[in-house]
Each structure stands twice: as structure tokens, then as C-alpha cells.
Write a structure and sequence with these properties.
22% strand, alpha/beta, single chain, eight-stranded mixed beta sheet, Rossmann fold
């Protein structure tokens, strides 16, 4: 979690805000939530902005790494903890539980969702946002033999071996429904990998994602490929250089699906 990685996370925050058309979340939480949790809050930038938007709410960000700022709104705080362990917060206490980009960090999403259900107030909302590492292209401009396609497939295999599949977000909706949430809604956005889109907003998002990929390939790939696939550092540097070359080709219209899934905890039946 060096400065380069923290800058990357803040850039991703800006990218997702633009992708959702200047919305931080989609859940209809109302105007007066009392307690909001951000699971895996990273640099804490989402928490700070939501605390400013909802001054009457207590906004709590939790992460396993102490990378959050010290100067924050008075209604914002951060806790250092592992969200995959048992939560110590009071049950039925949160109005809104949010998470973003927990891909590659969680090995048991159904258990995490179960804990979110227990800690939400009846009528409270949960929302998971996450891109998938499943590379898409709708017009055939991405060759099956391309380095980009090969790199994405290798990443998928490596993550499956680690127990953190890159397609977990495609199952969020099913897991929410199985746990008993209601009003489960799934929205999928196309996040361009480079600035190939004609739409100016999507073009800018693609430029940010191109920057993200080209400047952080080794950080995203080195440990993963070495530990899971047995690759050498030299092999990883070679495929990274080849991929950077391909990412400059705006004739390739590749994108990542970005999943937003939100749902409500049912109200208790009358008399309970």
C-alpha cells in the first residue's frame, strides 16, 4: 500500500463516480440515514464524501490496512479490522452497508453477505459495487489470440487458484436473494479499457482505465502470477510490455463489466 497504490485507488474512485453519472451509490437510502458502513474503505475517500453529503449520519470505514486520512469530517471515522472475521458491531444497527472493489480480497462472499444482513436494520440497504476481470468486446475487434485476452485469461486462472474468482460479482444478485434480501437490483455498466468510446464521458473513463492498466500492470500481476502460475519476473515483464503496446490501439473496443447490486433487508412482520 505505497503512495502509487493509494493514488491508483483514488483515481478509481473518480472513475467509478463518473461511470455512475456522478452518483456514489444507487441504493435509495433516504435523506436521514443514521449509520453507514463502508467495507474495505481503502483510502477512505468515499467515506469522507458521503459524510459530507449526510452530516447527520455516522459514517464508519473499515479496512485491514491503515491508509485512511487523519483530517476527516466529525461524523466520519475509520476502524482497522478484517471484515472476513466475525463483526463486533451491534446487530440491526446500520442503515446502509456499502462495499466497492472487494474482488481478489474476499474468499467467502456469502458469509460476508450474511454478516451484512445481520447488522443491517430492518429496511436497511446493502450495495456491492465491483468490476469483473472478465474481458468483453461486442464487435470482434479484440482478437482471441491477443496478449490482452491471454493476460485476462491467465489472471482469471490465477485468481481461481487463490480462491478469489474474478467473476464473483456476477453472483452477487443470486447471493443477496438466497440470503433473504428483497428488492434486489442488478445494474451492469460497461467500463472501457481505453479511450475508444465516442461518448465523451466514456472516453474519459476509458482514458483513466488505460492509465490504470499501463501504470500498474506489474503491481497487479507480479505476485499473482509468481505465486499462482509459477511465472518468473522476466516472463511477467515481457507480457506486461506486450500488453502496454496493445493498450495503445484504440481500434480494440474492450471493456470490463462493472456490477452494481443493491438490496433491502425486509421489515420485521408486525408484532415482532
Amino acid at each position: 500500500m505505497d503512495d502509487q497504490e493509494l493514488d491508483r485507488m483514488d483515481l478509481c474512485h473518480t472513475k467509478y463516480y463518473a461511470l455512475l453519472k456522478q452518483r456514489r451509490f444507487l441504493s435509495p437510502i433516504g435523506e436521514n440515514p443514521q449509520r453507514i458502513l463502508d467495507l474495505g474503505c481503502g483510502t477512505g475517500i468515499w467515506c469522507v464524501e458521503v459524510a459530507d453529503d449526510y452530516p447527520g449520519a455516522q459514517v464508519v470505514g473499515v479496512d485491514i490496512a491503515p491508509t485512511q486520512p487523519q483530517w476527516v469530517p466529525p461524523n466520519c471515522q475509520f476502524e482497522l479490522d478484517d471484515i472476513e472475521q466475525n463483526w463486533t458491531w451491534k446487530s440491526d444497527s446500520a442503515d446502509f452497508i456499502f462495499s466497492r472493489d472487494l474482488i481478489l480480497s474476499i474468499r467467502n462472499f456469502p458469509r460476508l453477505i450474511d454478516q451484512a444482513y445481520r447488522h443491517l436494520k430492518p429496511g436497511g440497504w446493502v450495495e456491492f459495487q465491483c468490476y469483473t476481470g472478465l474481458l468483453h468486446c461486442d464487435d470482434g475487434t479484440l482478437s482471441e489470440e491477443s496478449t490482452f485476452r491471454n493476460w485476462a485469461n491467465l489472471t482469471k486462472t490465477a485468481c481461481e487458484r487463490f480462491g478469489t474468482p474474478v467473476d464473483d460479482p456476477t453472483r452477487f444478485k443470486q447471493w443477496f436473494e438466497e440470503r433473504g434480501f428483497e428488492c434486489v437490483t442488478e445494474e451492469v455498466y460497461k467500463m472501457p479499457c481505453t479511450p475508444w468510446a465516442k461518448d465523451q464521458r466514456l472516453k474519459l473513463i476509458g482514458a483513466w482505465e488505460q492509465h490504470n492498466l499501463m501504470n500498474h500492470l506489474e503491481g497487479m500481476t507480479m505476485r499473482l502470477f509468481q505465486k499462482s502460475l509459477g511465472w518468473t519476473e522476466e516472463e511477467i515483464l515481457v507480457i506486461s510490455a506486450m500488453l502496454r503496446k496493445e493498450l495503445r490501439d484504440l481500434g480494440v473496443h474492450a471493456y470490463w463489466p462493472y456490477y452494481v447490486v443493491y438490496a433491502r433487508k425486509p421489515m420485521r412482520p408486525t408484532g415482532q
